[in-house]
Amino acid sequence: MVLSVSQQFQDYVTDQLSVVGSILSKRMFGGVGLYADGIFFALIANDVLYQKVDDTNRQDYESAGMDAFRPYPDKTQVMQYHEVPVEVLEDQQELCVWARKSITVALHAKK
Hints:
Yope Regulator, Chain: A; alpha+beta
């Protein structure tokens, strides 16, 4: 599977997430990993933003009909990241709320 991320989309996402704090993006496997204060909490693949989930926030994504990230579309394996709804991505304040939850999830997973 070939992942790609346009620079324009990457810039848009990092700008939208700027209200969360300093966001660092790193290219990885054709996609982009997003870090807040050194915590990996989101990724971009094929110009789609995915954020870290667990039992505390997964329902937000599933209620919006969002799927889990599948690194290999022809396999059933999923990662603990779900697609962010477009309406959330476009609303900077709402995106901030969802991102903070994902950062908390990532912090707990790191421990």
